[in-house]
Amino acid sequence: MTKTNPSFSITGQKFNVVILAAGFGTRLRPLTDHLPKALVEVTRGMRAIDHLIKKYQYVAEKIIIAVGYGAELLKNYVLGKYPKLNIVFSREKEEDLKGPGRSLTFALDYADSNLPTIITFCDYLLEDYINVDSDALCICEPKEGTYILDTYRNKVTINNGIIINVIENEEEENPTHGFTGIAIIHHTILLKSIVYTAATLKDPGNVDYTFDIIKPYISKIKTIPFPIHKQYEFGTTNNLIKIKEIFENGNN
């Protein structure tokens, strides 16, 4: 059971889809000793990158995968399995990996400025259907009986249905309104301007994804919260075991 609900645009809009998959996956070792995190098998016959491509392929004009650790393995797997899709790779040297802010900075060089952009992380698997037709941040809204296997470092504040700020999460438990990191951005030119300005001022390695990129964007563009009830984050081996049980047993 894949639990993948593909994303569609009501208006038929096509997107740049940026998948941030460059990291080392250290918390998943030894599984990632010789394998990039995006190639970890999340259920029989389905790797994380398969889930993401199936999730977004119908809205993607171009899929941009930011790669670093295990880049050739991931690149060869994806190109071999999805030869008909428009997939490009933004590659960083392993010694230069500094986090999602830097990865996004280089990935956006490949993004079409005339298209909106979806940004996601390679270890965030969603069962939820995502409405991509508005500027939105995907927000954790846990409900009883659902599975949210993640810790949210940041959360948003909302006023009249609009996100007005992103702040650090000081709660020990997963918060309501926790920012999942997944963003639907309809003004790619503005996004690029924010990212490149931050990279110039701070250097790419010090650009923080949430506070240097997402926060300035939502201050300029009306952005809505999109509630996510079933997100599966496999950053640790314990979570991966739980996720495999959920996916393969069809638990809800």
Features:
252 residues; alpha/beta; Spore Coat Polysaccharide Biosynthesis Protein SpsA, Chain A; three-stranded mixed beta sheet; 14 strands; globular
* Average of pLDDT: 84
* Tally of strands: 14
Please identify the structural class as seen in this structure.
alpha/beta
Shape: globular
What is the annotated CATH architecture? Alpha-Beta Complex
Q: How many strands, which pairing sense, and closed or not: the largest β-sheet?
A: 7 strands, mixed
CATH class: Alpha Beta
Instruction: Identify the strand order in the major beta sheet.
Output: 5-4-1-6-12-8-13
> Share of helix among residues?
25-40%
How many DSSP helices?
6
Domain tally: 1
Secondary-structure element sequence? EEEHEHEHEEEEEEEHHEEH
Task: Tell me what portion of residues adopts beta-strand conformation.
Answer: 25-35%
According to CATH, the homologous superfamily is Spore Coat Polysaccharide Biosynthesis Protein SpsA, Chain A
Low-confidence stretches: none
The gyration radius over C-alpha positions equals 17 Å
User: The CATH topology, please?
Assistant: Spore Coat Polysaccharide Biosynthesis Protein SpsA, Chain A
Walkthrough of the structure:
By secondary structure, this protein is α/β, with parallel strands linked by helices. It has a single domain (15-249), classed as Spore Coat Polysaccharide Biosynthesis Protein SpsA, Chain A. 27% of the residues lie in helices and 27% in strands. It has helices at 48-56, 71-81, 100-107, 188-202, 209-220, 237-249, and strands at residues 15-21, 41-43, 46-47, 60-67, 87-91, 117-121, 124-126, 136-140, 148-149, 154-159, 162-168, 178-185, 224-228, 231-233. The strands form 4 sheets. A 7-stranded mixed beta sheet has the order 5-4-1-6-12-8-13, sandwiched between helices. The chain has a 3-stranded mixed beta sheet with strand order 7-14-9. The chain has a two-stranded antiparallel ribbon with strand order 2-3. α3 (100-107) crosses α5. It is globular and about 40 Å long. The N and C termini lie close together (12 Å). The mean pLDDT is 84.
